[in-house]
Design brief:
single chain, alpha+beta, Beta-galactosidase, Chain A, domain 5, Glycosyltransferase, ten-stranded mixed beta sheet, six-stranded antiparallel beta sheet, 34 strands
Length: about 775
């Protein structure tokens, strides 16, 4: 099925007057005087050709469709609001008689820290509703509207049809499902099935001594609302409450999940929420639900000529907002859609970091739970640090609950930070520093000094201080680390690259941050000494090693030994020798088949993009799509793991724009087939909003809006002499910065438009034509 085509630019009016679809210029508050230099949202409407809103076009084209019954979580529709999540698919074992609406919640967990993060603090399964028709199911036609965050469609049975609409309300956190049956299906029913409240890991690993599941849920009626109350052995409860309301032939299910610990207040909260929601018909709930989602998408725009990848990208933006909010728990490995998994909590040695990278470029910092959680629960990080070092150090274990607590520390129950050189088998020290790199990205993309001053600097200072306790000079006069663990490779090594690379980035960031904040820190001389004397990263003929004691010599999905290349950008190929080292290391890493997984290929795509190799980046994303991505764009290994598809969206970002090292690079790694491309309001480091259009293989214009007045250097990719104009169309002072870049003097709130000299291109923003048709995501008719 082909993508709706963008209007031909030859049939569009250049919007010099500021007219635009949806009645707004892309930068609000512009006057007619400034509109001539500002991009607009779409072609001007005419009687012959009604204008199309670009967001409507790309989002409607990206909708997932089902014309076959999904049989598992990785095939079906999914709804969520960062807290409540529902995956929808055939009831296992009864695909023709019932449809499952899974009900899970990101806050529902156990509270028995003595059994560790993976059992005693694990996410707990809640249960599911089954929609049970009168007749056997014979067919379906469903559509998941990304724009409205709503599932609509029809279920056909031997007795008639069930027309349904479903959403997880953005604000009320209510699953609402409206069903309108035909005459023969008026007797359909809903049934709730409470799940056993035990860690999902119990199905995969031996239980810790003394651990047992929680008692069964208690189901009862409460004045017309039914509630399943799940008591917890630790105290507290979680409650699923629901009610059906009939309005004519239509019946609507309203369901809510509440969690309370240590109090037992969840029941009252759940009943109150359902009672309030059930007063409103489904259509009324949908109205204010859609307001949030429509505004969400309009914060950025991206269109590429690969229909499959463009759809995938917009689905990831939907998925991220369905799974993450700033005030929600940091995403567990499965997001809010808990399914059987050996990983029922939050993972900090890759998963959490990759889950949130795409929020920066896509301009969705309102989803940044990592910065909020690390700040809010910093005292718990101190408790997870080995006792002798708690006074001045911090660390984060491999796994935690949403409050950053790991609980008992043993190979069976969880993993602590560990002590370098002492703690077999896993002194995994660098996880907090890597998580703080995400916080640094949030600072750099907003230039919000409060993030730097109140969160990043104090936490990074203590994370790096933990390393400083163990650095020792060697006979070579260099500083060395005792044995630590490189995530997932196996075996401890001295001078482990995972830690050396993070330590280098951390010390450099602390020095620069202290200068920016005007702090005369007593540790600054030590940070500078580390940067001057730290041992070089261990390498051999194949590239970067795991560490001084361990070469890279087997298939390994994780790029823990390559973090200096990506995402830290400490090693970037600035010399021929350095570039050759990256290329050699990358080829050696992905050259071992066997253990490679999905995020191997997203990492390889982003590293290729760093090198400007757009064809390689696209090929790696192609491998990911072909080998690992499921019909609904979910991903699994032993269970659901949400980070890989989300990091693939970041790999696409890295092909379209990079802004490390103080330079904004526009279209740095596009494959030859991507002759046309549109990006709008892409957020870069330095707090710039980038808009740019490429047509026929030529970058026609680049526009940057400065939100913070930071230094602006842009490698624009426009050949030959250029013009730079401000928001009023007047020439703007700029100078050559070398290597195809210009330095532009921009104050806070000002904008710059870069074009070829004498060119006055169409500044409207619209989707690009796809190069070829592609099937929709979901399960379309074969």
């Amino acid at each position: 099925m082909s993508s709706p085509a963008a209007p031909d630019s030859s049939r569009r009016t250049v919007l010099a007057t500021g007219t635009a679809v949806s009645g707004a210029l892309l930068t609000s508050g512009l006057t007619a005087q400034t509109a001539a230099a500002e991009p607009t949202e779409a072609g001007e409407a005419t009687a012959a050709e009604p204008a199309r809103d670009p967001w409507h076009t790309v989002l409607d084209d990206a909708d997932l469709v089902w014309q076959r019954m999904p049989t598992a979580w990785y095939e079906g529709p999914f709804l969520g609001n960062g807290f409540l999540g529902s995956g929808i698919y055939a009831e296992p074992g009864a695909p023709s008689t019932a449809v499952r609406f899974n009900v899970q919640h990101s806050e529902v967990q156990d509270h028995r820290p003595e059994f560790g993060s993976l059992f005693g603090l694990a996410r707990l399964p809640i249960g599911h509703f089954t929609l049970e028709p009168v007749g056997a199911i014979t067919g379906l036609d469903w559509r998941l509207s990304l724009r409205d965050a709503e599932l609509t469609g029809t279920l056909t049975t031997e007795k008639g049809t069930l027309r349904l609409r479903a959403l997880v309300h953005n604000d009320r956190s209510v699953l609402a499902v409206e069903v309108t049956p035909s005459e023969g299906e008026r007797g359909f029913r809903w049934v709730f099935h409470p799940a056993e409240a035990i860690s999902p890991r119990a199905a995969f690993k031996p239980l810790p001594d003394g651990y047992r599941g929680n008692p069964p849920a208690q189901v009862a009626d409460h004045d017309g609302i039914t509630a399943a109350v799940q008591p917890l052995l630790s105290g507290g409860q979680h409650v699923t409450a629901w009610r059906e309301r009939s309005r004519g032939r239509t019946r609507t299910l309203y369901a809510h999940v509440a969690h309370s610990y240590p109090k037992t207040t969840a029941l009252g909260q759940a009943l109150k929420t359902v009672r309030a929601a059930a007063q409103h018909p489904y259509s009324a709930l949908a109205l204010d639900h859609r307001v949030w989602w429509h505004a969400y998408y309009r914060k950025s725009f991206l269109s590429v000529p690969d229909a499959r990848i463009q759809r995938f990208y917009w689905i990831q933006l939907y998925k991220t907002a369905a799974a993450a909010r700033r005030d929600a728990p940091v995403m567990a490995t499965s997001g809010p859609w808990l399914e059987p998994t050996p990983w029922p909590n939050t993972w900090w040695n890759l998963n959490a970091q990759l889950e949130y990278w795409l929020i920066h470029g896509s301009n969705h910092l309102e989803l940044d739970a990592i910065t909020r959680a690390l700040s809010e629960f910093r005292d718990n990080l101190a408790q997870e640090t080995p006792t002798p070092y708690r006074a001045d150090s911090l660390g984060i274990p491999r796994t935690t609950d949403p409050q950053l607590v790991n609980g008992a520390i043993s190979p069976l129950m969880g993993y602590g930070v560990g002590i370098p050189g002492q703690d077999p088998p896993t002194p995994e020290v660098g996880n907090l520093t890597w998580a703080l790199h995400n916080v640094w990205l949030s600072y750099r993309h907003t230039m919000d000094e409060s993030i730097l001053r109140d969160v990043l600097f104090p936490l990074l200072r203590k994370a790096i201080n933990y390393y400083l306790h163990f650095l020792e000079p060697g006979p070579d006069g260099r500083l060395h680390l005792p044995a630590t663990f490189s995530p997932e490779y196996g075996g401890d090594s001295r001078d482990c690259n995972y830690d050396l690379m993070l330590l280098t980035w951390g010390c450099r960031t602390l020095v620069e941050s202290a200068e920016l904040l005007g702090i005369d820190d007593k540790s600054a001389p030590r940070w500078r000494d580390v940067l001057a004397r730290l041992t070089p990263y261990p390498v051999d003929g194949n590239g970067f090693m795991i560490g001084a004691d361990i070469p890279f010599a087997k298939s390994h999905r994780h790029y823990s030994h390559l973090l200096a290349v990506y995402p830290l950008y400490e090693v970037t190929g600035r010399t021929p020798e350095e570039r050759a080292l990256i290329e050699r290391s990358l080829a050696h890493w992905v050259g071992f088949e066997g253990a490679l997984q999905g995020y191997t290929f997203t990492g390889a795509a982003s590293m290729s993009a760093l090198l400007g190799k757009g064809e390689d980046a696209l090929n790696y994303l192609g491998e990911l799509m072909t080998r690992f991505i499921q019909p609904n764009t979910m991903y699994q290994e032993s269970g659901p793991v949400i980070e890989t598809p989300l990091s693939a969206a970041q790999s696409l970002h890295d092909m379209v724009c990079q802004s490390w090292g103080g330079v904004i690079r526009v279209f740095p790694a596009l494959p030859a087939a991507w002759q046309d491309l549109t990006v709008h309001r892409f957020r870069t480091q330095g707090a710039f909003l980038l808009s740019a259009v490429r047509r026929g293989g030529i970058t026609r214009w680049v526009r940057l809006v400065s939100e913070a007045g930071a230094p602006c250097v842009v490698r624009h990719g426009i050949a030959g002499p250029i013009e730079v104009r401000d928001g009023h169309g007047r020439p703007l002072r700029h100078e050559d910065a070398g290597d195809g870049a210009v330095r532009i003097a921009l104050r806070k709130g000002e904008s710059a438009l870069v074009t070829a000299r004498g060119d006055r291109p169409d500044l409207s923003v619209a989707p690009v034509r796809p190069n070829a048709d592609a099937p929709r995501w979901g399960l379309p008719r074969a």
